[in-house]
Amino acid sequence: MKICLLGDGAVGKTALRERYLGKQFSSGYVMTIGADFAVKKTTIETEEGPKDVKFQIWDLAGQPRFNSVRELYYKGSHGGLLIFDITRRDSFTNLKAWINELYSNSGRGKMPIVVLGNKVDLRNETEGCVEVEEVYNFISDLKKERDLDFEIPYLETSAKTGANVDESFTRLAKTIRNFLTKT
Are strands 49-60 and 35-46 parallel, antiparallel or unpaired? Predict the structure, then answer.
């Protein structure tokens, strides 16, 4: 399964990927230039029993200056983790642009996504955080606007603590698998 990690710069895409790959959290920020790629094999539980999954994880640079380069990396994607920083409202309001970019450049059109509100470990330390209800309203509106007939899960994550990191990738794999068996 080819998946893309999408979202504004500094929302924690690389940190989530690194944590998922078993590496330790680092608080230092290093900007991704263009895209970075990793592979991970895992097993997910399905109604038919355990199934092996091999992820091709494409971590795409979030800064606007990489817009034209990013388009190339979407081709052939099966789904995406749509990531925003719960402490940065602008990263949440930019999610629609990220979905447009994914759906326009993948060559597949509509495809499964999982929305991740990252840096949940900072919720109690920061005022004005994006609230869970706002995200569910966004997802509901998105499904209506795009006529999406598949589940769009929302999880709050923390690369720092590891909260819901593995679950994010597992949910995306299951959502993609369900989507592909319907089409």
Answer: antiparallel
